[in-house]
Amino acid sequence: MEFSLTEEQEILRDTANSFLEDFSNSQSIRKAMESDLRFDPVLWKRMASEMGWTGILVPENYGGIGLSWVELVTLMEQMGKNLLCSPFHPTVCLGISSLLEAGNEEQKSSFLPLIASGELIVTLACLERSGSWLPEGIETTFEKKGSEYCLNGIKRFVPYGHSSDLIIVAARKKDNSNSKDLSLFLVGSDNPNISINQLTTMDQTRPQSELKLSNLKLSESKLLGKEGDGWEILNKVRSLGALGIAADQVGGAQKCLDMTCKYVLEREQFGRKIGSFQSIKHRLADMMVLVESARSSAYYAACLVKEGNDELDEAISIAKSYCSEAYFKCASDSIQLHGGVGFTWEYDVHLYFKRAKSSEIAFGSPQLHKDKIANFLGI
Amino acid sequence: MHLEFSKKEELFREEVSSWLSKNLKGKFKPVVGRGGSGDQTELLEERVEWEKHMGKSGWTCIGWPKKFGGRNASINEQVIFYEEYTKAGGPGRIGHIGETLAGPTIISFGSKEQQKRFLPKIRLGEEYWCQGYSEPSAGSDLAAVKTKAELVKGKWKINGQKIWTSLAKESDWIFVLCRTTKKSSGREGLSYILVPMSQPGITIQPIKQLTGQSEFNEVFFDNAETQEENVVGEVGEGWKVAMGTLGFERGTSTLGQQMAFEQEFNTVLKIAKENGSSEIPSIKNQLSEAWIGLRIMRFNALRMLSNSRDGLLSKEAMLSKLYWATWHRNLGKLAMDVLGMESEIGDKLPYDLTFLQKMFLFTRSDTIYAGTNQIQRNIISERALGMPKEPRGDNKK
Ligand SMILES: Cc1cc2nc3c(=O)[nH]c(=O)nc-3n(C[C@H](O)[C@H](O)[C@H](O)COP(=O)(O)OP(=O)(O)OC[C@H]3O[C@@H](n4cnc5c(N)ncnc54)[C@H](O)[C@@H]3O)c2cc1C
């Protein structure tokens, strides 16, 4: 057991951080989040070709660098810290994971190399109008007609739906009463029978779309995994998705603490630095406890993915619920300790606060994960 | 970064668990699972016997270097040991102050002669120790101690008073932080002196705690004596030595205690399932939060230990006391919530309380001793986050 980063992992972390400090600074974040695509495609290409990040989980024989979730979490922590606007989470945590989990050889060899090289952006369309993470939440249907599938329905809350090339769509068999009888499909966003409508999101760094599928026809080869296996695959992929978010939250929470420490040592009131007031010091200490504990939980889960341990689901629920609450608390405290400037558009604190909120509910709210834990405990 | 233990470590685990299962039975059966939070002063004689048995078999002080009779166990092995010890229901260790505070201090700062004189007896469970830091006017502000020691004809003569001294009645020795330089103040002029408890110059006055028991005491020094050579480190350098001891207190030594928390949690969980309170949404939620908190405590501990190099703990280690003390206090409260109306009802008249009641009450002290939560927050914000130090008052009454 060695629960600390190896030298290579430390290098990865530091390189990622300095790259992102340069290219995902306050100015570039704001430019990206207000652009049509909601991310900077030039930066995306560099992340893929120069840094190799999009191929981090892709095995070498598919053109990637084949590292583990420990490295991925290390990297995503830095992305969260620097508030990176990019479809990295949907493409890598959801897209690649789905393909690795359920893709057949042909699907893997046609998509993975393109993802690794940064040419293909992927997302997952599972949630719908109810926003429920349960199988009943999926009302979109598919019907097999001859050798073709025909899909109908409306997907909501699809991350980066408007800028993705490939969309993994979850649908249920038409007229089937078994709520878990779901299947996944690979849908090109250029399909004429899909209309994509970008939604306004409170957190502009995490765009979402609504998709309408009307009599969308797909060949058999677009089925991902076996028919009826969709719920099982989704469970695994969304669990990993939750871990990816948790890593981002760790970085975000850390940044909130860092920004606040810096600010309270600059700002003076009553003839002294506000950082010398004990009520402020104590809040910072509590923030640090949250940040470090959040980090431990995310790394612990990442190690379990790598080691294929059966405690994994529990560890991910622990990480997602704890990191969500830690980030939200740190971001809220950060606004409070910045005073009036914390409430301005100009300071970045609100961007973190909004990302803390959007990521808190993504892939299961803290409450949902606590209920899962209760389930593990047999209550 | 990986979590799996090596083959060698897994073999060590087997060795520990098989020794425990072969030995923690028969005459030691009564001590299984005893001596935890709120139960520290129970079954003392039996637990001393157990301590001696462990000592003889080489299972105390396993983290100490081999030349002092330890096993030089790595941090991973210590983690494994504590895990297995807790799993087997090993009783609360009454030699812990010697093993984890006095011993490591003597190993780090003591003379060869002191090491020879004191370490074997700690290891074999033959001598027990208590900690003489706090005084009536020196609590959080430890550097305000007033107890004096003066060298008279090859012996230190000690005068003054310590308070809140845990297990003083049960101990053979006390390490005393006291003033050896006249008119000195603050961190200057202090020395770290080892003093035998059994002597006319020492009077122990038990203090009744809110649990009704007396785990801690007042210790009065009235010309108490100890040999000149019983100073650890240089005369006048006591502050440095005392801080070293506190470092041990806040480091690995709490690991075993944290492992015992899991058993307490399981007890609370079991009751909640049996009495149906786990179906009350707020209780269910608190149980699940407590479990999350407990698991993360362990993840933190593993990370902190992996990050500690050369026995020095990383800055994350500063978080550990605040974290576990707060968690444990919350568990105490949760236990009462789970029990509902029954939480008021004790075992026996006049004031014999249940295990969980004692735990609930005792956990109020977790956030006070070994540095209060407020002091921990000061330390974290000042040393780990670089905030300005608290100003000192100059209150000369
Ligand atoms: C069960 C138990 C066992 C103990 N065992 C031992 C033992 O074996 N040996 C030993 O030497 N001592 C022992 N102690 C003593 C313990 O270390 C002290 O109680 C502790 O250090 C606090 O000191 P105090 O009680 O004087 O409280 P005070 O220091 O008077 O604190 C009172 C309150 O003021 C707060 N406060 C104080 N200073 C500050 C500050 N700078 N900023 C913010 N808040 C502050 C504290 O957090 C606390 O809430 C034990 C205590 C308990 C409860």
CATH architecture of the largest domain in chain A: Up-down Bundle
> Mean pLDDT of chain A, as a whole number?
97
Radius of gyration of chain B (CA) equals: 21 Å
Number of domains of chain A: 3
Question: Helix/strand-derived class of chain A?
Answer: alpha+beta
Proportion of beta-strand residues of chain A: 15-25%
How many helices of chain B? The count is 11
Radius of gyration of chain A: 21 Å
Summing up helix and strand content along with how strands pair, one would put the structural category of chain B as alpha+beta
The counted number of beta strands of chain B is 8
Number of domains of chain B: 3
| Secondary-structure element pattern of chain B, one letter each | HHHHHEEEEEEEEHHHHHH
* Content of β-strand of chain B: 5-15%
The percent range for helix content of chain B is 40-55%
Helical residue percent band of chain A:
40-55%
**Low-pLDDT regions of chain B:** none
* CATH topological fold name of the largest domain in chain A: Butyryl-CoA Dehydrogenase, subunit A, domain 3
CATH class of the largest domain in chain B: Mainly Alpha
Q: Assign the CATH class of the largest domain in chain A.
A: Mainly Alpha
In oligomeric terms, what are we looking at?
heterodimer
In brief, what are we looking at here?
The complex is a heterodimer of chains A (379) and B (397). With 379 residues, chain A is of the alpha+beta class.
Key features?
heterodimer, A: 379 residues, alpha+beta, Butyryl-Coa Dehydrogenase, subunit A, domain 1, Butyryl-CoA Dehydrogenase, subunit A, domain 2, Butyryl-CoA Dehydrogenase, subunit A, domain 3, 3 domains, eight-stranded mixed β-sheet, two-stranded antiparallel sheet, 51% helix, globular, B: 397 residues, four-stranded mixed β-sheet, four-stranded antiparallel β-sheet, 8 strands, binds flavin-adenine dinucleotide
Task: Describe the secondary-structure layout.
The complex is a heterodimer of chains A (379) and B (397).
Chain A: H1 7-23, H2 26-34, H3 41-49, H4 69-81, H5 88-102, H6 105-116, E1 122-125, E2 141-145, E3 148-159, E4 166-173, E5 182-188, E6 194-198, E7 208-219, E8 223-224, H7 230-266, E9 268-269, E10 272-273, H8 278-307, H9 312-338, H10 349-361, H11 366-376
Parallel strand pairs in A: 1-4, 2-4
Antiparallel strand pairs in A: 2-3, 3-7, 4-5, 5-8, 6-7, 9-10
Helix pairs in contact in A: 1-4, 4-7, 4-8, 5-6, 5-7, 7-8, 7-9, 7-10, 8-9, 9-10, 9-11
Chain B: H1 7-23, H2 44-56, H3 75-87, H4 96-109, H5 112-123, E1 129-132, E2 148-152, E3 155-166, E4 173-179, E5 190-196, E6 202-206, E7 216-227, E8 231-232, H6 238-250, H7 255-275, H8 281-307, H9 317-339, H10 355-366, H11 373-384
Helix pairs in contact in B: 1-3, 3-7, 4-5, 4-6, 7-8, 7-9, 8-9, 9-10, 9-11
The complex binds flavin-adenine dinucleotide.
